[in-house]
Write a structure and sequence with these properties.
Chain B: Keywords: Cell membrane, Disulfide bond, Glycoprotein, Immunoglobulin domain, Membrane, Phosphoprotein, Receptor, Repeat, Signal, Transmembrane, Transmembrane helix. Chain B: Belongs to the type I cytokine receptor family. Type 2 subfamily. The complex is a heterodimer. By secondary structure, chain A is mainly alpha-helical. In chain A, 64% of the residues lie in helices and 0% in strands. In chain B, strands 35, 36, 38, 39 and 40 form a five-stranded antiparallel beta sheet that branches. In chain B, strands 43, 44, 46, 47 and 48 form a five-stranded antiparallel beta sheet that branches. Classes of the chains: A mainly alpha, B alpha+beta.
Amino acid sequence: MAAAESPSAALRRRDLCSRGIRLAGKMRADVVDLLDAYVEQQGLDASASVAAVEGVPLAAVERWDEQTGTQRLLENLAAYRAFRALLAQMLEEQREQLGEADAGLGRALAAVLLQVSAFAYHLEELLRLESRGIPGEEGDEEEDGPPPPPRLSLFERKLRGLGVLRELAQWAVRSVRDLRQLAKPSPATGTAPGLAESP
Amino acid sequence: MFSRWNWVACGFYLLLNICSPDASGGLVQSCGHIIPESPVLALGSNFTALCILNESCLDFGNIYASQIIWKIKNRLVPKEQYREINRTVSSVTFNDTSSLATPLTCNILADGQIEQNIYGITVTVGLAPEKPKNLSCIVHQVSRFTYVMTCTWNPGRHTFLDTQFRLKYRWPEAVFPDCIPKDVNNSCTVNDIQFFVNTEIWVEATNALGKAESDRLVVDPIDIVKPLSPQNVSITSGLLPTVLQLSWENWISDAVMTLKFNIRYRIAGETNWMEVPPEDTASPRTSFSIQGLRPYTEYVFSIRCMKEDGAGYWSDWSEEKTGVTIEDQPSKGPPIWRIIDTSQSPACWTVHLIWKALKPYEANGVILQYELTVRDKSSLSSPVKKYNVTGTNHTSQLREGTYEVTLIARNSVGPSPPSVLLIPASNSKAPVRNLRTLPKHDKLWVGWTAPNNYVLKYVIEWCLVSSSSDCMIEWQIAQGDVQGIDLKGIKPFKCYLITVYPLYADGQGSGQSVKAYLKQDRPSKGPTVQTKKVGKAEAVLTWNHLTVEEQNGFIRNYTILYKTIDGNETVVTVDPSKTEYTLSSLTSDTLYTVRMMASTDNGSRTGPDFTFTTQKFGKGEIEAIVVPVCLAFLLIVLLGVLFCFNKRDLIKKHIWPIVPDPSKSNIAQWSPQVPAKHNISSKDQMYPEGSFTDVSVVEIEADDKKSFSEQDLKPFDLLKKEKSTSEGHSSGIGGSSCMSSPRQSVSDSDEGETTQNTSSTVQYSTVVLNGYRDQTPVQVFSRSESTQPLLDSEERSDDHAGGADSTAQRQQYFRQNGGQDETNTDRPCFERTKQITHANEGDFVGFVQLQISGQSSQPLGLGMEKNTQEAALSNVLQTCTEGQTVRPETVEENPLSVDEMPKSYLPQTVRQGGYMPQ
């Protein structure tokens, strides 16, 4: 795949990877900061355990190093699209709940949402460079749209938000690894990078 | 008539149309309208408007399109621009909209005269927006997590219209809300900026005439970040005296952006910054060790950062932080010099050792003390003297000789290298040559030519020359390989004495001196000139030199300017070493104004004016005039005297006419046998008590002047002749006195003056106041040797006598030395008194008194009784009237010695026992 790339495409790919890595890194840093603010603002315990959030693919995966680049990109794209929808929902709930009382948290959520969107755009661009079709979003595929989220209590919404942010932080770490893997010149073999290369 | 009513109806209809509600519910319904309604037009384009009349107005008001006129802001549009399209539509066309103004109105001329407005529109003229240019954006870090992006652009020309600018940005998959500038049209700030995604940014400008977009700027905002400068900068001293460690915190996490840095530093108090090589700080870090610093020096640090790859902008410099390096031992010994005072005795020196405190970068710490060692090189046996000094000078009493002085500065870390000064017994080595100075801005460069021998160092001494205080010596050491240094701290307009000594390894050269100014000015005052001596045509001017403080530079010359009040000024240039000058060729007896100007290279100053007047006469001129005049006068006097002496006979003859000899008169017979000699030894002898001698009185009737015939006067002539024969024997003064009396009696007009003139020199008669027996004594005058002036009593008597008689028509002249009473000589009788001394014949003293009738009283207050006098007068008067007979009144002969007896002519009729006035 790499051998078939034109120089400009390779450059573009490298640039996208590099930029994506930085974006994922910043996104993780921002999400970590947001988590602290969120826990404090929502009155939650930082050590509270949260069950897996429905609709969010888990970052932890077995045989990660055996994944192909395209597979990585597709999993990342699916995850971030899910995060985008969840964060948008969180942002809306946040505004409904607090109004303009805590604009800072809302701005931070909006910023993370933008970063998630931007990262999804990066992944889409990389998939285009891979000459792979971009899968349609779930909402596009289903004529009825996404199923309406179950009606949750306020506390459940808070816990769900905490779970989303934690998983996003995890995914940010994983995305950095995935993109670094993709940025290597010989990704065709699908050799997994060492853990030492983790950010 | 019909037409008039028709137009009235038409106007009424128009009014109704305007005021009545129309079908659409509006309050106003006009008779027409303009198309287009309130257009916005491009400047410079053409424009056509149509005015359409309502049909209803046509029918009722008889108004047609042909009657329409167009106006722009009350200004009629030329009819050439009209066009009647049909009976209800008129158009107007403007080729250039720049001639348009608001409002454009459609009017109608009713009946050709009454102008009625139909409709009006507002015309807006402007320009379409230009394409915004030079779009650029910068992302400012506001806080740790907050970034804002500010984009600026060039909005282009002014459009004259309301033009809206919008900053647009988007991701490929997302569009963000536009950023609309507030109050400006060339910049906008976006708050929710996101990094690591290429963002497309552009500006859109829109107004009524169009829309324009700038070029698209595609940039990842992370590449245009201007980060905040590092915070919490701190400095710590390292183990080495030349190292300081700088630490800081970054505002941006590495996850967002890795940074590179610039570090600058300077010595506290200085202004020039030094910078750490950028390549040393091109990687992310939070600390850096700066090396190569000076020990014990305070440094100021500042740091800035930017994105590591160079994309974006440098942050501002951080706030300045200071740090001090630790101490090190002094890097060099203090410069040392000496001043030797030999004023007490040439063999015994008072040596002032002076040295300069090390500069901070040489001292490398706080100097605790100086260790001074003085070694006598001329005597090896002499002990080495050591001193520990905390100041920067030391004075020692040393015998004349060669000494080696060593100085060490010590701080808490250690000693400095020693400084060595050799003090030779004499400065016998070669001096520097060609010592010169040159001002360089605020420094004075001193240069010299090195001697032929190798010189270790040069010592440059300088001091401010002052007239009021001693020269305070400053000094500096220069290395032996230089031939000039800059002296700092030199004040302008001050005179400095600069001396350069070469120091050799084995001795010292003699000093060469030069005076110099850093900057010269004109003198602060001019010389005060005054005259030392003023002559007829020259004047010696003198002045004092200006003090060195007043000179402000080298006095190149003095200029003397002098002039008369109305004359041209004359200028004389004088050598500056002079203090005196002689002005010559001056005009005598003229007022001159002189002033003096002192000049330096940079100007002149004139002193106060001084005026003087040249003398009228030169030296010796007065003497040359006065002395000859005096001599000539004396010569003339002498010649006159000689002449008079030679011609005395002639003069005497001319002045004193010969008095007739009474003895030869025909009035009486004078006896030649009368004892010619009267040896009178004294007054008593001369005038025995109660007797007179040799007194003759001639009384002449004044009223009968004519009765004096020549014959009668013969006796006088005779007397004159006799006098002429005896004048050679007359004694000087007595003779003149005797001779003067007749003269005075003859010339009445000259009487007073002459008498007065002679009164001081003529001897006076002696007054004998003895009465005769029991009779009242009669005052008689005789010759006196006295030169005393007349007594007051006598003068008063004169006065009294003068005022006593005015009725008798007689005048009596009693002729004496002080004859007077010319007021009483209205009708003078001739009177002569003559006394002639015949030396050959013996000394006769004669007293002749001629008393003229009419004289009322005895002048001079004589003691004669009035009645007696009157009796005598009556006798005389009688005699005069009888035929000029003179009757001697009193003649008393008194034998005198030949020597002493005054000579007198006595009438022969007077004998012993004859008539005597009593």
